[in-house]
Amino acid sequence: MSIADAGRHIRHVFVRDLELAARIGVYASEHGRTQRIRVNVDLGAVESGEDGVDDLDRVVDYSVIVERVRALVAAGHVRLVETLAERIAAACLEDPRILSARIRVEKLDIYPDASSVGVEIERLRAATCPPPAIES
How far is the C-alpha of 87 from the C-alpha of 125, rounded, in Å? Predict the structure, then answer.
């Protein structure tokens, strides 16, 4: 499913295959150590301003998203990949221009015969929060 939508003025902002060392897991063998995870973020963001204006302030800055993900992972032990995915989605949706957040969190070293295991979620801005007006 495509996230970008010209008719609705929605831009697709993404982060692909961000690998981090995380303290994550419910089992005793996963406590007190880090393990590799991969995070993917897909955001639907309202386009703002005039096309072709080369100004970082008018777009969702993916470096801000990456730093938020890194900070959440560094904050301490999380039991479930689902919990981490929810926290990342909530952090992304703090930006009022972001209407949707699809987050995938994968553990990379759980099974030798599987490249990864994990979860993908999608969260939408609450219907009670109208999207920001599009500037022209």
Answer: 14
The stretch 48-60 carries a mean pLDDT of 74
Quick check: 42 and 12 in contact, CB under 8 A?
Answer: yes
CB 88 within 8 A of CB 70: no
Question: Residue 59 and residue 126: Cα distance in Å, rounded?
Answer: 21
Q: Does the structure show a pLDDT above 90 at 20?
A: yes
> Domain extents for the chain?
10-124
CA 53 from centre of chain: 26
The H or E element containing residue 19 is strand 10-22
Residue 71 is classified by DSSP as: H
Q: For domain 10-124, is the CATH number 3.40.50.170?
A: no
Torsion sign (Cα): 86, 89, 93, 99: negative
